[in-house]
Amino acid sequence: MINNNTKEEFITEAQKLFDEGYACSQSVLLAFANHFKLDKTTAKRISATFGGGMGRLRETCGAVTGGFMVLGLAFGNEEPNDMDTKLNSYKKVRELNKLVTKVHGTSNCRQLLIKHASEQQVKDRKHHKLICRQVVGDTSGLVFDILKNSQKI
């Protein structure tokens, strides 16, 4: 872990990446990549298929799954039998999911779109500005809070 960025800097970076055209999942993971010395090309590829609620399946929001990846970098287990670490990382994932749900009412991509955009707006790709960019920023901020509270940032 190498930098001392503020919460606002992580949020701004994630939203900037999203505005450049990266998927919501990529934007969140890439915003934290330097902090964990994660190669950006690897980060882009690992998180590439999670946009649109995981490959446009409209399941768990890509910003949230990108946040899960960041939590894995911070809390994930390296040994297969390290159940304490594994279970703690799962707890952090549930915490992030709960926080996103508290802010937005859901962490499900499809439900977020139904709540904030019409079918036509989604078809016209306008949902990015209506809700997705906000969730990218909010999720990045919540991930920062979890990391800060655990002294991982």
TrEMBL record:
InterPro entries reported in the protein's UniProt record: CGCAxxGCC_motif
Pfam families referenced in this protein's UniProt entry, alphabetically: C_GCAxxG_C_C
Taxonomy, superkingdom: Bacteria
Matching NCBIfam families: C_GCAxxG_C_C
Protein name listed in UniProt: C-GCAxxG-C-C family protein
